[in-house]
Amino acid sequence: MTNLSHARVRFAPSPTGHMHLGSARTALYDYLIAKKTKGQFILRIEDTDQNRLVTGAEEELMEGLRWLGMDWDEGPDIGGKFGPYRQSERKQIYLQYANQLVENNHAYYCFCSPERLAQVRKERQDQKEMTHYDGHCRNLPPDEASRRVAQGEKHVIRFRIPQGGTTVINDLLRGEIVVENRNLDDFILIKSDGWAVYHLAAVVDDHLMNISHVIRGEEWIPTLPLHSLIHRAFGWEEPVWVHLSVFLKPSGKGKMSKREADELDKDGYSIFIKDLKLLGYLPEAVVNWIVLMGWSYDDHTELFSMDDLIEKFSLERLNPSPAAINFSKLDYFNRQYVKRLNDSTLAEYIQPYFIKAGYQADLGTLKKVAPLINERITTLDDAVEFARFFFIDKLKYDRQLLIIEGLSPSETVKVGEGVVDVLSTLSQINPLTAEIPLSELMIKFNITRKQLLSFLREAISAQRVTPPLFECMEILGKDKVITRIQDALNVLA
């Protein structure tokens, strides 16, 4: 199945928590290879572990994929001819195939109690041996085992690992992976409650859904021989196995873990897709960022649209080496994509962040603000810090910050009154109308441009940093600017 014509790939998450960068990257590589080969990208929900399901996680996964720009061709919400696409709806299918393995002597019924298994485990731990199942039920006569099952005796179904020899599997990125069979356990296929474990369910589904490539994280390599052996037990052709690089924490030292994820949150970053959206990152930037953590096109190209990626992506250029999560690079990509937005689109994108922060920001004003900030913000929510003063009725001033450096409060008031007099004579305030008369005012009071603009910025925004000052004054309008300056002077009086 190395033929890349019409690849059928699946993104098969478990709805047990938030969608993170690793899942998003796997989905992206699946999506790109499907689109590049004019194949199919399938969403399959692997929810056989009913105890770990998290309410709302499936919906969050779907929302995250759509936000990143990845629509699926088949899935639980849209159906398809290979459904159902939730494993919890395929329970009888797995049981049927497990029983087929029993009939073919590749699996067997195991009646060992949890207590006995715990005892075996303890004894093996004490002897510093691998805590594998001891094979107690492996050689039960088939008739006896079937009779006990028919009588309702509690049991599981275990896979019969070959005794001796090796299992050799080829991975597209890593070459041959060789495992000694004696190091493998007779693992469970069907639990005592009738639910299939992931290993059986995933393999059966991949076969029945004609999956050509299984692309997944490096952490699944230890289970690869189990999945390969199930394929071989049925006589099925194996898919192309592709195990991606592991993510390292930003320091580059050690794998990313939940503890590091919690620390990132304190710095305004996250490894979870829903959080990146809330933090004001654009989906185009996130896609561009994660695709390069494990794949590269050349030594110099950095910015890729989704269409670019579909054209240029190839499995052969994937790199199995660990990839450190670099949030500075994400910030860089986001700045590039924010700069590319037109004023109307940027205004629409940043409006929810103002509203969330409690500001009634109208789109008309935001469209005027957008060109002033699009090269100054990294994330969309940065816009609130830069431009919230446009939407505040009454500013709160720090008296000390209003005083012009080198002048007294009373001298600052005189300068401010002069500014009001100048601005009052103008029909409107903008860079063209205000520059010359205010320059003359600086000469009159013997102050520098920096001194005057520092006062004006504080007076009209109560902020130390703003977009270009005269353009801000133009958007606020003459009346509001004069009112704010007078309010500031009242604080100094």
Structural account:
This protein is mostly helical. It folds into 4 domains: 155 residues, Rossmann fold (3-Layer(aba) Sandwich), CATH 3.40.50.620; 84 residues, Glutamyl-trna Synthetase, Domain 2 (Glutamyl-tRNA Synthetase, domain 2); 50 residues, Helicase, Ruva Protein, domain 3 (Orthogonal Bundle); 101 residues, Orthogonal Bundle (Arc Repressor Mutant, subunit A), CATH 1.10.10. It is 47% helix and 9% strand. The protein contains 21 helices and 11 strands. The strands form 5 sheets. The chain has a 3-stranded antiparallel β-sheet with strand order 3-4-7. Strands 1-2 form a two-stranded parallel ribbon. α1 links the parallel β1 and β2. The termini are far apart. The model has no long low-confidence stretch (mean pLDDT 94).
Look at the structure and name the CATH superfamily of the largest domain.
Answer: HUPs
Q: What is the CATH level 1 assignment of the largest domain?
A: Alpha Beta
What is the spatial order of strands in the main beta sheet? 3-4-7
The number of distinct helices, counting runs of at least 4 residues, comes to: 21
Radius of gyration: 32 Å
What's the gist of this structure?
With 493 residues, the chain is mainly alpha-helical. 47% of the residues lie in helices and 9% in strands.
Keywords:
mainly alpha; 21 helices; 47% helix; Glutamyl-tRNA Synthetase, domain 2; elongated; 493 residues; 4 domains; three-stranded antiparallel β-sheet; Rossmann fold; Helicase, Ruva Protein, domain 3; two-stranded parallel ribbon
